[in-house]
Design a protein that fits this description.
The structure is a homodimer of 204-residue chains. Helix content of chain A is 64%, strand content 0%. Chain A has 204 residues and is mainly alpha-helical. Chain A binds a DNA duplex (30 and 30 nucleotides) through residues 14-15, 17-20, 45-47, 50, 54-59, 61-62, 65-67. Chains A, B: It comes from Streptomyces doudnae.
DNA sequence: GTGTACCGATACGATTCAGTACCGGTACAC
DNA sequence: GTGTACCGGTACTGAATCGTATCGGTACAC
């Protein structure tokens, strides 16, 4: 359940009503996200997830009322910052680092975003879960990198290109599959940062 | 039928086996694309399209064998270059013009791309139709703009930022809804070109 | 031990939708 | 007129899939 984080030190697993251990829950979440990436949101079925994790549909429906709620829970559980902790002291190197980190997750995240991109327009909870899981943390980390660069005086606070850096990074990341048929890898993104983003910021 | 372009001067409409006029066909195509934008590819139903155009399912299935083929045909029919004919003699102005043109179509095209983004992975014909309709023409036109700029000597042929211009334009176009919750309008894209693309190309 | 609460399996009803089949009606060719 | 070929409407089959209900089994609490 979504409430189980509230009551759960380790040994208390015994006290838990549910026999679904956190590890088991992870299996469910991994399975459903993988199915979403594979087949698209609409084509994901509870039966499919149940089969692939060898549990019964009943078990899934006991824990989560509906498919959207299930997927949203899975998304929330997958939340993690891809590139926090990047802090080299140089804006250019930080951006290169972010590009590299983004490129490493590119395939999985992009497929997920792609697969959910439209479903999200119809379900508020799903939309928010997606933003919290894949969008907001990255944007925040990126803005933090930029903020530090401004603070160090590497770029003017009102530099017009600043506001577009996140959109550039994620935009290029997401459209490369469409334009070139392959996911943006770290090399591609780093070259992009060096060829376009840094020059635009005046960091040659 | 897909073959009707081959046999059709004007008056020959009489000779046509089909009573589906090109205008009527347009209605079908517009309706199905609108449904795709609205509900997503998977949720589009032949029955829905039939109802919204007041024809019968039979009629649709007589013309197109399956749903993917129907949607692909609709996409192909929607093919049109958004920004050919932009040629001001200045690379910077051409790019501004392209940005403005792209921004004007942004909502419709982005929604379509979003809605089809995943379905396309499972159906080759659909994928190709989508590329031909929404991706390739724009890319080609953009590359042509850049080529002319190079030819005029406004930017070096091997300038590293050149290769990323199309990806940036379409990337920013497509992710703005995700990041900021609204489609990229012409103003946004023109400002982006001026703040980031032109500086990166050394065209202050 | 005994009881409780959850598990997995399976079966079920309801719904939705792709695609087919059949119908009577009608516009146009000749 | 008569025939042909297509139209729109409706009904149908068959396959998924949602979500519910039922059932026997089992791990853990006490």
């Amino acid at each position: 359940m979504t409430s189980q984080a509230a009551d759960g030190p380790d040994t208390v697993t015994a006290t838990r009503r549910s026999k679904i251990t956190p590890e088991r829950e992870r299996e469910f979440f991994d399975a459903v996200l993988e199915q979403v990436r594979e087949c698209g949101y609409d084509s994901v079925t509870m039966e499919g997830v149940a089969a692939s994790t060898r549990c019964s549909k009943s078990t899934l429906y006991r824990q989560w009322k509906t498919k959207p709620q299930f997927v949203a829970a899975a998304l929330r559980s997958a939340r993690q910052a891809r590139f926090t902790g990047i802090d080299t002291g140089s804006l250019a190197d930080d951006l290169r680092g972010a590009a590299r980190a983004a490129g490493e997750w590119s395939g999985k995240d992009t497929r997920l975003l792609q697969a959910l991109g439209h479903a999200v327009m119809q379900d508020r909870e799903l939309q928010q879960a997606l933003r919290e899981a894949l969008v907001d943390p990255e944007i925040a980390a990126l803005r933090e990198i930029l903020r530090r660069g401004v603070e160090r005086g590497e770029v003017a606070a009102d530099h017009p290109a600043l506001e577009y850096v996140p959109a550039q990074m994620f935009g290029v990341l997401r459209v490369r599959p469409v334009l070139e048929g392959e996911y943006a890898d770290p090399e591609y993104l780093v070259r992009f940062v060096e060829a376009a983003v840094l020059p635009a910021l005046g960091l040659t």
